[in-house]
Amino acid sequence: MIKLFSQKNLPQLSKIKLADLATKAEGSQEFFNSFPWAKDLMVFYREDQCQQEIYYCPQHLLMALAVQGQRPLFIDLQKQIESFRQQGPHPFTKVFDRQQLVVDLTAGFLADTAKLLAMGFQVRCYERFLPLILLIEQARRLAANPNLSFCPGEWKVAELMDGQLYYDPMYQQYSQKSASKGPMTWLRDQLSESDSPEKIIESLYACKKNFRLLVKSWRQAKALVPERLKHRYQGKSTCYDLYLICQS
Ligand SMILES: C[S@@+](CC[C@H](N)C(=O)[O-])C[C@H]1O[C@@H](n2cnc3c(N)ncnc32)[C@H](O)[C@@H]1O
């Protein structure tokens, strides 16, 4: 399991050279060359045997997350939003109303948040995993998107207002073929859900509020709560399940 760090660890961290960094993860030389702050980089977080690291630049407060064998990860929200602007019709636009906020309960690397923003929605997102919280805070600061607000930490049913929810839980791998090979695989290895997604959906039904809930899943997967499912939007590899939670 990943070890988390605190700001207190910072003074004990040692500076390392860019040349050393380049050997740690494939593609990192090119990645770091594209950022002028790279020469001031420090290892902010280090897991045993250099498997996961967060690189941190104290001067510019920029960081990236590196996993062995993968390109260091850095959330560029603006770039993601621009890449999604070209997309065709999406279940988000069929299910959600642009006049109301969409709450993304599982921000992760902000890919789905960026899709929602590209489609003109106002989004509030939650994330509880500290390395991602740091990357998200940084991405927000750099993109300065007025349509995005962020709540670092775990969302609580009691705090949610009636409205539109988007939920993309960490699924166990349904098959090797459908499993993603990138950052999501790494993230899934680090995290385990405290409650099953099924239980979480039931807790939303139990809280006496009104939600339009869209849940992301694998194309081949069964709905999490089939007896309550309102509609399934089928994509090429993913699908989106709609639940209408009404108290009246
Ligand atoms: C599958 S990932 C979401 C990926 C995201 N949709 C994207 O496009 O990058 C699920 C994320 O939700 C976060 N998460 C899960 N349960 C949470 C909770 N109760 N509160 C806050 N964050 C949560 C996990 O830490 C993880 O980063």
- Count, helices: 8
- The CATH architecture term of the largest domain is 3-Layer(aba) Sandwich
Low-confidence stretches: 1-28, 35-52, 174-179
Query: How many discrete domains?
Result: 2
CATH topology annotation of the largest domain: Rossmann fold
Alpha-beta content class? alpha/beta
What is the CA-CA span between the terminal residues?
43 Å
How many strand segments? 10
CATH class of the largest domain: Alpha Beta
Strand order of the largest sheet: 6-5-4-7-8-10-9
Mean pLDDT: 75
What is the helix fraction of residues, given as a range?
25-40%
Q: What general form does the structure show?
A: globular
- Main β-sheet description: 7 strands, mixed
- What proportion strand? 15-25%
| CATH homologous superfamily title of the largest domain | Vaccinia Virus protein VP39
Structure description:
This protein has 248 residues and is of the alpha/beta class. It has two domains: 7-67, no CATH class; 77-245, Vaccinia Virus protein VP39 (Rossmann fold, 3-Layer(aba) Sandwich). Helix content is 27%, strand content 22%. The chain contains eight helices and ten strands. The protein has helices spanning 18-24, 28-33, 77-84, 91-95, 111-118, 130-143, 183-190, 197-206; strands spanning 42-46, 52-57, 62-67, 102-104, 123-127, 148-152, 163-167, 211-218, 231-234, 238-245. A seven-stranded mixed beta sheet has the order 6-5-4-7-8-10-9. It has a three-stranded antiparallel beta sheet with strand order 1-2-3, covered by helices on one side. Helix 3 packs across helix 5 (111-118). It is globular. Residues 1-28, 35-52 and 174-179 have low confidence and may be disordered. Bound molecules: S-adenosylmethionine.
